[in-house]
Amino acid sequence: MKGFQNLIEKDLESALTDLGVSGDLWRKLLSHSRERSQGDLTLPCFPLGKQLSRSPIDMADDLVTILASKHDVSATNGYLNFKADGEWLAQRAIDGKKKAGSKKILIEHTSANPNGPFHVGRARNAILGDTMVRLYRLNGDEVKAEYYVDDMGKQVAILAWALANLSSEEVDEVLADKDEINPKWEEKADHARVRWYQAAQALREQRPEIDQEIAKMVHDSEDGDDSVLVAFENAYQPVLDGMLETLSRMGIGFDTFTRESVFVIDGSVAKVMARLESLEIHGTADNGAHFLDLGARGLKGKTEFFFRRGDGSSLYATRDIAYHMWKWQQGFDLLNVLGEDHRLQSKQVGMALEELGEKAPEVIFYAFIKLPEGKMSTRKGNVVFMDDLLDEAKEHAAAVVRELRPELDIDSVEEIAEAVGVSAVRFNIIRVSPEKGFTFTWDEALSFEGNSAPFIMYSHTRACSIARKVGRGSNDCTIPSPINQSTKELLRTIELGADVLDRTLKESKPHLYANHLLELASTFNAFYRDNPVVVEGVVDEFNFAICERTRVLLHDGMVGIGIEPLTSM
RNA sequence: GGGCGCGUAGCACAGCUGGAUAAUGCGUCGGCCUCCUAAGCCGAAGAUCGCGGGUUCAAAUCCUGCCGCGCCCGCCA
Question: How many DSSP H helices and E strands does chain A contain?
């Protein structure tokens, strides 16, 4: 509604001046109407009435008198309501102007330890991150999707230790009371090797000497020991490949992979530590470990942020600082997607960066997805694997397609089912705000009606079906007057699209855009009901133009949030 | 114990830069396929916005206390 706002602002300002209102307060007050039936933009007059010691109800009435000749305005209970003209909205929709983005943004997401397959909880990160990548691209911005590979931590060390020291029989023995590997995934390294990881985790509890061996490996890796790093890579790379295969099935990919060890080897971590040690808020512990007193900068709770161990080696967070400085050098804005368990860590890294004269990155935090039985844990094996969820979703979708479209051949059913399954899974995760924790249930995840991806997909295929029936693109048309209610609602939703995308990106809240697409699909369905495009072989050019515009917007929006824009389902 | 996040119909979830009658879906009840795909559409019932104070003309939204849930509080990652 930015365009509409521009349209009325001048007249509104002059009307307000006539009444004696000064200042810019009204600009802040003017916003989307909460009551849709009342209008499109609303100015609550209460604060202005206060300023002039006048009744806001009278003021709103006076404003209507002044503005009525130029705009569709009304006043109720002290609210001044502007209604956008249907024909104006229609013209805007048909013109379909798209602004070009100009931002450059590097989005780091997923960056999961390469020690096992994705479960639904870990996948929330990838789905959130990839959706932001897609939405920035939809906005026309230049985006880099980056995966930070943790190639030297304890998790990888445990995996490497297990692969070097445990036989397949030993692993089976240790995990005897656990579920066996699903034969379907036996050949997938993330599923196969995570058992070694789990077995090692179990053994560590009984045999402390294992911890010492692992600790040595971790330290050697932190010193940049090549042979250890190579062993690590051989251990995790097949696992990572398996994980990326799963992501790729969901349409998630990366432009760059950056390994943590790079910053140790090239000396930038050492430089960062030296700089941190020269800071005013720097402190030293008894055994020579170094920290920053972030309490001096207002951090509450735990105020000491350790960045260097007593033995001089770096910590994960220290390397993260070096990594972020490298990221800033590329001239991109920075956005990270992190689990809520990283809130403190991320705050510390951000504050440390600011101490070094850099900016803190923008971060999206998300809460964990729980199972009805409790939280998910790769270590404990209490998880729903993404691979299983995707298969299940596809199977469920195939059953629906076979029932609804019995005439389709097997290949078509397969294609539709895969698209519906993947889209539904992504959408169910993206549609809720990230900070809200939710409990995974198969029922929810496999719901294909109402607020779901298939609902949007279905609306899109209806528009496609009409386009097929017409068999050509839309022509110039005359805009009818008046425009009926359901058309106006659709046009209004279309007009709002740009505002929603803006806000979605500015606030890093992809669920806002997901909800907008639901709204777009829903208002299109009502339009579809009331406004036939083809009647007895004759095309209504206006309705077709609106239909085509919506089809494109749905298509682009779906791509923007990772829903497959099928043309038929 | 301290820090941070969350708490909205039976369930799930939106709204939270203060503004009108708290939106949507599932579930429940009722209606719509000789008509561009019914994974759809139309209608009905269903909400002490966790609880108590406060600020304000106006509070689901801001402040504060309490309760419940989650995450973190390691010289781990």
Answer: 22, 17
- In angstroms, the CA of A435 and the C1' of B4 are apart by 12
Query: Could you report the per-residue pLDDT of A42-89, keeping only the tens digit for each?
Result: 999 999 988 888 889 999 999 999 999 999 999 988 999 999 999 999
Q: Where are the domains of chain A?
A: 2-84, 104-265+330-346+355-375, 386-561
CA of A437 to C1' of B59 (A): 25
CATH class of A2-84: alpha beta
Neighbours of A314 (CB within 10 A): 21
* SS3 at position A549: helix
User: In CATH, what class is A386-561?
Assistant: mainly alpha
Whether the CB of A51 is less than 7 Å away from nucleic strand B comes out as no
**Residue at token pair 């960045």:** A307
Q: What are phi and psi of A175, to 5 degrees?
A: -95, 20
Strand A362-366 vs strand A333-339: parallel, antiparallel, or unpaired? Answer: parallel
Same CATH fold, A386-561 and A2-84? no
pLDDT above 90 (res A498):
yes
Q: Above 80 in pLDDT, residue A9?
A: yes
Nucleotides on chain B that have an atom closer than 7 A to a protein CB are: 2-7, 12-17, 19-21, 24-27, 35-42, 57-58, 70-77
Positions 516-535 in A, CB within 7 angstroms of strand B? 518, 522, 525-526, 528-529, 531-534
CA proximity to A543, closest of A482, A493, A461, A474: A474
Task: Give the C-alpha distances (Å, rounded to integers) separating A269 from A252, A281, A359, A443.
Answer: 30, 19, 18, 47
Fill in the amino acid letter for A517: L
pLDDT at residue A223 greater than cutoff 90: no
Average pLDDT for A393-400: 96
What is residue A115's DSSP assignment?
Answer: T
Q: How many other CB atoms are there within 10 angstroms of residue A472's CB atom? A: 8
Max CA separation in chain A (angstroms): 88
- The top-level CATH class assigned to A104-265+330-346+355-375 is alpha beta
- Which pLDDT belongs to residue A275? 97
Percent helix, strand and coil across chain A, each to the nearest 5: 55, 15, 30
Give pLDDT, residue A378: 64
Average pLDDT, chain A: 93
Q: Phi and psi (nearest 5°) for A291?
A: -145, 165
pLDDT value for A379: 65
Q: Does strand B come within 7 Å of the CB of A479?
A: no
Residue A85: CB less than 7 A from any atom in strand B: no
Q: Determine contact, residues A32/A42, Cβ cutoff 8 Å.
A: yes
Per residue in A468-495, pLDDT (tens digit) is: 999 999 999 999 989 999 999 999 999 9
Tokens representing A150 are 């943790």
Contacts of A80 (CB under 8 A, 6+ apart): A42, A43, A44, A45, A60, A63, A64, A73, A74
A275/A14 Cα distance (integer angstroms): 56
Question: What pLDDT does A518 receive?
Answer: 97
